[in-house]
Amino acid sequence: MAKQAPVLEVQDLRTYFYTRTGVVKAVDGVSFSLMPGETLGIVGESGSGKSMTALSIMGLVPKPAGKTVGGKVLLDGEDLLQKSNSEMRQIRGRKICMILQDPMTSLNPVYTVGNQLIETLRMREDARGHGLKERAIDLLSKVKIASPETRIGNYPHQMSGGMRQRVVGAIAISGSPKVLIADEATTSLDATIQYQYLQLLRELQKDTGLSIIFITHDFGIVAKMCDRVAVMYAGKMVEFAPVRDLFNKPSHPYTEALMRSVPNVDEEVDKLYAIEGQPPALDKLPVGCPFAPRCPYVFDRCLHEYPTSVTVGENHHAHCWKLI
Ligand code: SF4
Questions:
Q1: What is the pTM of this model?
Q2: How high is the pLDDT of residue 73?
């Protein structure tokens, strides 16, 4: 059987911000691939470069300070970094789309959700009025909104947070994209609604073969949803592993520390564990391993050279000198 090709391949992606205080390396040499129907989790603390990796893939890096200065983003073999703005406008939504944490940043409060869905369908399919309302109702029912015929006339403020996030999901899948990037898409939802939303994404994935990148700080979501996980620190991917291996054998000291900071309900402790220190300023990265100032295993070599990638298992790699 022929080997499947990745739907998305990111190679040595670099996005820098040019500020008064120096060059902020927000994404620095990130590489990974995503197979059809696969779910990849990207985890890490705030400011580790997860969201900026997503924005770089989408061609939405904030300008003028930010710039993707190197690498490739191959979607079905075509490099998105070589596309013009108008070409990217055609690709976003149709082939690749993104759901953000707060649905209100994606929805316009002065239009009904029906208007917004119909307008999206019109733009994506160059279609005229006929049948668009029915398509919009169908999309709302696909994302499990009850009474879609009535709800289509609602304004975003007339819906709950969970419902609004479903509408954003409906808009995202309206162009039948191949890749969906969910950036902390369930963070603002309460636990029950979050569970339902994750179920929904799974069902959509099963029906459409959609590939998903989950950006999250929630290891529960990673365990539930992802096939593979990438751990980011200071703009770099420091560990990459199949989900089970990452949980069974976290190899990078940063991954180990992240996992330790997840509270365990079965364990009685006086004080919850937190990783000591702060992530480094990205415009003043230390020479050597950026985790060195916080790492309990640090030794001389860590302070002078950036660690190479070490294979610790099948498809499991980590950048750490202690693993050599
Ligand atoms: S390379 Fe050194 S400082 Fe960095 S994570 Fe490994 S042991 Fe810690």
A1: 0.90
A2: 98
